[in-house]
Amino acid sequence: MKKIFLLASFILLVTTACDRDFDEPNPNNPTIASFWKSESDAVKGINAVYSTFHRTATLYSRFLFYHGMLRSDEGYGSGGDITLNNIMSFNQTNYNEGLTAGTWQNLFIGVFRANQVLAYVPEIAMDEALKNRIIGEAKFLRGLFYFNLTLYYGRPPLILEPSEPTDRPSNATNAEAWAQVEKDLSEAAAALPLSYTGDDLGRATRGAALGLLGKAHLQQNKYQEAVNTLAWFITGEGKSLYSLVPNYQDNFKASTENNSESVFEIQFRFNPNESTDDDVDETRINNTGTSIAQFYAPRGVGFSDGGARRWLIGEFEKEKTAAGTRDPRLAATLLFDSTDVRGPQFTTVYGQTFASRYGTTGGESSAVWFRKQLNDNEPGRTEEGFRSPNNLRLIRYADILLMYAEALNGTGQTTQAYPYVDMVRARAGLRPLTQAKPAMTQAQFLAQIKHERITELTGESWRFADLQRWGDLGPELAARDPEFTNFVKGRNEWYPIPQSDIDLNPNLTQNPGY
């Protein structure tokens, strides 16, 4: 499958820490005054915003998986990276640590790039339809960057114009930050097309903007707003655009990307000649793949730095399919001793049986790994690497259906919410909820939604957001994840703002409890 490659040939200038003397300008670099002149410049500019996704390991190449999965109760730091393990267990003491400070900084690099597009593209004489689309893409991307900043840091400053070294913005409130996310995504949806073809496949669509907008509404427990937005997929013009693919695992294979279930994917591509993750280093070849597979893969294949909690297996085993078999999503979601239901002698891990790699007692015989970011389904694959081509399906139609059901239930329309959960369950072969658990109360239905999101979406980086939205983060989760013994309510819902930014900007204040 041909996939879009969204790295710009010109990368917008950003302020980064390196050895270059910034007092001596590089005469080969374009400047703002000399750049933003043509339609080609506008396209290169928006491509540079997308390129931020895989700029260094701090965003969708790796760290955003850690934030959404390992910091939640579904995963933990399982390898030798002590800094990672401490942060994921709520023991962070260095507020400038790259895992959190780097994500913050690179999200703002994305904001910086989007702001340039929004400031300068409107003045370019070019095709108006393309101009409007590029502006819509920039608003979507800025909305996505601020979604993550608001979700993980709570009170980011709102920077909506190209920034200058003398800027000293103050924190926004959490409500103000979410309001800006909603504004950007609403305006993006109005400008974006329904779909793309050819080399443009993978760019932001109207569905991507509305899907993320619905998620932003739901994250704030704005149930009616979420219903109104997500209805576009159910009864609006999006109804004919998306559908659940018959094979659940096709959502996680490099060979079946950008399928009918995909609402928005982070595009990756294998580049065997890459020599850097820094997309502003013009002397080297950028890595357009993702490194998460190398860090999540089982020991002996990858680094095993991020493990899955074993309690998840029990969630999948709570209910048999209508045919009396195990939920097939378990094998697609987790690698463990019984990914093959027959046990460790039959479960294959990159060409070898689980039993031969890890034994059946002691050691790693009880280890569990996330599977969806891996490439073990490729024939002959025996190891992972730092340049996986496997796209991240950031928003899937199944997620839309479960969010819509949750929002309907939140507005008191519990009966009306059943069919959308049933659509997701039917693909897994489970009986409809209308048969399995009819006439649930609003509270019972929400509890069921929490279960359904585990069995459908585990390992897709949304678990921390779910727990935060439901108010379920706290020491009470220690029964299934011992690291939550360290969780302090009112503090650990958000990461600390990097101390280096606060030192440079007296108008920024630290998050509560840090």
TrEMBL record:
Gene Ontology CC annotation, any one: cell outer membrane
Keywords linked to the UniProt accession: Cell outer membrane, Membrane, Signal
Domain RagB/SusD: 261-514
Superkingdom, natural source: Bacteria
Protein location: Cell outer membrane
Signal peptide from the UniProt entry: 1-19
Domain SusD-like N-terminal: 91-216
Database matches in CDD domains: SusD
Protein family membership: Belongs to the SusD family.
Protein name: RagB/SusD family nutrient uptake outer membrane protein
